[in-house]
Amino acid sequence: MECEYDEALCIPNLLEKAIEAEKDGYDGIISFCFGDPGVKPAREVLNIPVVGAAEASMLFASLLAKSFSVVTVLPNVVPMIGNISKTLGVNGNLASVRYVNIPVLEVNEKEKLKSALFEEMIKAIEEDKAHALVLGCTGMMGVAAVLQEKLKKHGYEVPVIDPAFAATKMLESVISMGVKQSRLTYMSPPAKVRL
User: Fold this and answer.
1) What separation, in Å, do the N-terminal and C-terminal C-alpha atoms of the chain show?
2) Angstrom distance (rounded) from CA 117 to CA 144
3) Which residues contact 60 (CB under 8 A, 6 or more apart)?
4) How far is CA 95 from CA 45, 72, 128, 143, in A?
5) What is the mean pLDDT of each run of 10 residues along the chain (195 residues)?
């Protein structure tokens, strides 16, 4: 997902699969994209917890540092990430949103990805005063630890948050606590015929 249009197209299928997963006995759902598509409507229709990768990552980053930057794929998603931070209430901690200009379907080229991420992370720390860094795409799995170590070798001991890992751990925690989304915030949709 690389823009609002992509998000709109994926939400109906996500909701269908999420409802099916609950019926099949799953304990929780992760919207496995940094744009957190469908998180809010899924929370309305499901009775199991729903976690978004961006929300989980930003909450962890806010816990670990006074400021954080997100390094994402393309400029198209920068406004989306800013909006998520505002809705979540952590926009005051968001130092910047930077991008590597690598489309989602090309993030599997790990060496190119790590090089581009590292360059933007250094800028986020030095220019934007970020104290933590968040990978802004769930497809960036497997590079956070390497980048965190490389930054440490360059004198910056800061956390680098992998959104896939953050969402998984957040969902595990919510499930183990026996809680889910509030029905005062995420009310069940009114009963009516929908076409």
Assistant:
1) 25
2) 10
3) 159, 161, 166, 170
4) 34, 14, 6, 21
5) 94 97 98 97 98 98 98 97 97 98 94 97 98 98 97 98 98 98 97 88
State how far the Cα of 155 lies from the Cα of 78, in Å rounded to an integer. Answer: 28
